C-alpha cells in the first residue's frame, strides 16, 4: 500500500496537481483501499493538523512581510547597507547582500527578499558597470537569507509540524544566516577585484533632500522589528503567535506614520495577498498532517529507520545522507512543499539516531534555502532573471561560485553544530545537544 500511496502522489504531481491536493488525494485513496479505515479520518486529521494556536502566527508573519515590502522599508535598508559596506571594492554587490540580510530579518521570505532588493539593486549595479548576469546572481544568492535569518515563515512551519520550540528555531538561524552573508560578501569582494568592479555609490532619489541622520534613524527603526519579536518572546512578554501580531502592528505604524508610504488601499491589498498565501500554506500543512498519519499507519518511518540502520549506526553518516536528500529536494521542490512533505518522514528517523529535531530542522531549512539557487527549479534564479530581463541559464552560470561556498557553509554547520545550537541553548529551557 505504501508503493500505491507514493505512486498516486507522484502521478498527480507529474500532471500538475497542486502538492496539497496531491497529498490529500493520495492519502484519501489509500484510506479507502485499507480495510477498517473510515474516509472521514481525512477531515479529522486535516483539521487536527491545523488546530494549533501557533498556526495563527503564519498569516500574521506573512502580512508583516507584505506591509514592510510595500511600506518603503527596502530603500532605507539599502541606504543603511550602503553606508556600512559601499566603500569597499565591489561595494554594491555587498550592499545587495547586506540589505538582503536586513530585509530577510523582516520579510521571512526568500523570493520576496530577492524581488524587493533586486528591483532596486540590479539597475543601480548595471549603471555602475556591473554585468547584468552577475548582478542577478548576487541578488538571487543573497535573497535566500530571507528564510534563514529570523523571523522565518519556513522555520515556523517546521516548528509546528515537528513540534519543536519556535523561539529555538528562530534564534538558531541567526549565526548561520550572518555567517552565510559574510561568506557571500567575501566571494563578492574577490570576484569584484577580478572583474575590476570598484567603489561605487548607491543613490536613492527620495533621500537626496533628506538629512543623513534622518534616513539612518528610519532604517534602524525598520531593523528594530526582529529585535522586538525575539526580545518579546524571550522575555515572556508575548508568545510567538502574539509576536507575529505585534510585528504587523509595528510595520503598519512605521510605514504609515514614519515613512508615510503605506496607504489604506495598499494595506487592503497586502491583507488580500497575505490571505491567499496563508490559505495555501495552511491547506498544505493540513494535507501534510493527513499524509503523515497515513505514513505512520503504513509504518513507513519505522521501515525507513530499519533500512538506514542496516546501512549505518553513525549519526554523522545519516546527516550526510540527509543533506544529500535535502539538497536534491531543495533543487526540485518549493521550500514550503518540501517542509510539509518531508518533515513527517525524516524527523522520526533522525530522532532514532539521537539527533535533536531542532538542530536538524535548522540544517534542513539551510539546505532548502540553498535550493532556492540550485537548478533546475531554484525560485530565486527565476525571480532575479525576470527582474533583470535575461535568461535564467545566464544567472545560473554566475551563481555557481556562490552555491559552492554556501554548500561548504552547510557542511560546516552540520559538523560544527555549536554554530547552530549555541544561541538556542541559551534561550531554551535545556541545553540543545545536536547528536
Category from helices, strands and their pairing = mainly alpha
Q: Give the count of helical stretches.
A: 21
Number of strands: 0
One letter per element, helices H and strands E, the order comes to: HHHHHHHHHHHHHHHHHHHHH
Separation, N- and C-terminal Cα atoms: 33 Å
The largest sheet is: none
Rg calculated over all Cα atoms: 22 Å
Strand portion: under 5%
Mean pLDDT: 83
Total tally of structural domains: 1
Low-confidence regions = none
Q: Can you tell me the overall shape?
A: globular
Give the helix level as a range of percent. over 70%
Describe it.
The chain is mainly alpha-helical and 435 residues long. The chain has one domain (40-427). 77% of the residues lie in helices and 0% in strands. It contains 21 helices and no strands. It has helices at 2-14, 19-33, 41-50, 57-70, 73-85, 91-107, 110-127, 132-143, 153-162, 166-172, 174-195, 212-235, 240-258, 264-297, 300-311, 315-332, 335-352, 357-370, 379-388, 392-415, 418-427. α8 runs parallel beside α20. The longest helix has 34 residues, at 264-297.
Give me a quick take on this structure.
This protein has 435 residues and is an all-alpha fold. The protein has one domain (40-427).
Pick out its properties.
21 helices, 0% strand, mainly alpha, 435 residues
Describe the SSE topology:
Elements: H1 2-14, H2 19-33, H3 41-50, H4 57-70, H5 73-85, H6 91-107, H7 110-127, H8 132-143, H9 153-162, H10 166-172, H11 174-195, H12 212-235, H13 240-258, H14 264-297, H15 300-311, H16 315-332, H17 335-352, H18 357-370, H19 379-388, H20 392-415, H21 418-427
Helix pairs in contact: 1-2, 2-14, 3-14, 4-13, 4-14, 5-6, 5-12, 6-7, 6-8, 6-11, 6-12, 7-8, 7-19, 8-19, 8-20, 9-17, 9-18, 10-21, 11-20, 12-13, 14-17, 15-17, 16-17, 16-18, 17-18, 18-20, 19-20
